[in-house]
Amino acid sequence: MKSNDTDKKADDLERMYEQSFSGFGFFKPGQAIETEVVSISKDSVFLQVSGKSEGIIAREELTDEKGNLSVKVGDRIRAFFLKAEGGEMRFTTRISGKEAGARMLVQAFREKSPVEGLVEKEIKGGYDVKIGEFRAFCPYSMMGDRRSEDPAEYVGKRLPFRIQEFGDKGRSILVSNRAIHEEARQKRLEELKKSLSEGAVVKGRVASIQSYGAFVDLGGLQALLPVSEISRSRVEDIHAVLEVGQEIEAEILKLDWQGERISLSMKSLVADPWDSAAERYPLGSKHAGKVVRLADFGAFVSLEPGVDGLVHDSELAKASGEGPRGALSLKLGQELSVEILGVDQDRRRISLKPASSAEEDETTARYMGDSGDSDTYNPFAALLKK
To answer: Residue 253: which residues within 8 A CB-CB, separation 6 or more?
Structure first.
């Protein structure tokens, strides 16, 4: 009976406090407001509430571990009404500790306001979370922004939660930490929608690498950089050109906000070498290349990053005299001198044949150009001249 009398007195006192501020607008414990920081003192941050009235938040709530204040005058923040005390309206940015009474938690549940809880231990199916004097349950599936490989990493941490269910006068509370992450992600997504567009050039950090491409973090949203869009040249090993944590610059190829999919391209920021291939590789010109791929019908030779040509098996057979399977004598990575037989710029194809190198041609020209009156007479060169 004594306990009931105490509860009744506490309720009556709270109603008196609420009524004393009725002229400034009625607030319930746990009620959320979006407001502006109007001034900052050594110990408190003052908020614009209504008319000339101000609300107060303890300064320590808005400072980091190094004591740096995270807000300034004029900033808008979200706060929750705690109580009227000593003629002041007290607010908080997080509902936790001794302030997390039953009425506060009920209000937080109704308004979907975040609460802070201490993850005390793992229990069957999830975690035991203490919020003020109450205990709540957070399933594994509702902890973190994604499923953790080490569930115990959350134990002992103070984390924000959203109350999903509140029953039996606080004896049955279900909370979700993932809902907080999802809300933050959606907020970042809305901000990104204002700044991102197809064709825009963005900077991001490589978050993970797969065989088919890399996922790039664009500040809260991950985009896919396909392996085919990394470079103008063929990428055989993606790990050889990208690493996790690397900062890259790329162009947005496609945006799908409904499916939350973004595709990027690094190679689109590099000039397409095929645009002027016909000028750089005229018919009959000779070039040094490298064998990059072998096929049943011939060998592909890289002339420069992004430009490969084909030496058909028939041309290899002519050069080697080994029959129709001339490509078998070549090896990947082998240097090869080739001559341009044809360029199809629109279809991105160049046909080649093996050729003597420019150095060999120059040596031959010098040899053939020797005069018969030279100090060293070469009868073979003289015979060729005739």
So the answer is: 198, 229, 263, 264, 265, 268
Q: Say whether both 168 and 202 belong to one domain.
A: no
Asked whether residue 22 carries a pLDDT value surpassing 50, the answer given is: no
Q: Which amino acid appears at position 262 of this protein?
A: I
- What is the CATH classification number for the domain harbouring 200? 2.40.50.140
Query: Are 172 and 210 found together in one domain?
Result: no
Burial class (CB in 10 A: 0-12, 13-18, 19+), 204: buried
> Hey, which residues does 76 pair with through a beta bridge?
36
Rounded distance, CA 328 to CA 311, Å? 12
Note whether 130 and 172 are same-domain residues: yes
Q: 18 versus 212: which is more confidently predicted?
A: 212
Which residue type sits at 254?
Answer: K
Looking at the DSSP bridge assignments, the partners of residue 91 are 81
Asked if pLDDT for residue 19 goes beyond 50, the answer is no
Average pLDDT, the chain: 81
- The domain in which residue 150 lies consists of 114-182
Give this prediction's pTM. 0.53
| Count of domains observed in the chain | 4
